[in-house]
Amino acid sequence: MRRRFMNFLKLIKAMFTAVPRTTPTECSARVRSGEALLVDVREPKEWPDGVAQFSVLLALSDLIGARTQWKAFLEKNADRELLLYCAAGGRSAIAAKVLAAEGFKTANAGGYGEWVAAGWPSVTPPPR
Q: Could you report the per-residue pLDDT of 41-50, keeping only the tens digit for each?
């Protein structure tokens, strides 16, 4: 119970953290150069419909929960910018704020549809 309460407090604190909102066009060079990582924070059931090419698939629910997948990813990529997207930009804003409050360099990269509309390749991820 105490852990859930602490997670809730961290989430509330994060909501007051400012993060930049950026577009796929603005992000593309940073992702292609390897300077930044593109992260899809949608839930696994949403990924089979397509994901932005080169994106890392890490659900928001794991970020604000147990971090079974996020923990190792964050340790390995602590020095890189994380560009987060979801379906429409709401969940990626939450994820970006949570991570920024923890000291990571992040930006809300909007929704998956924006990436597709900008001409970014879409792929079907392998089954998990």
A: 999 999 999 9
Q: Please, which residues have CB within 8 angstroms of residue 82's CB and are 6 or more apart in sequence?
A: 36, 37, 39, 96, 99, 104, 105, 106, 107
Q: Using an 8 Å Cβ cutoff, are 86 and 111 in contact?
A: yes
Give per-residue pLDDT as tens, 9-27. 666 666 667 899 999 999 9
Helix axes 90-101, 2-14, angle to 10 degrees: 100
128 inside domain: no
**pLDDT for the residue numbered 17:** 78
Could you give the CA distance from residue 47 to residue 29 in angstroms, rounded to a whole number? 24
**Is 91 within the bounds of a domain?**
yes
Q: How far apart are CA 13 and CA 33, in angstroms?
A: 32
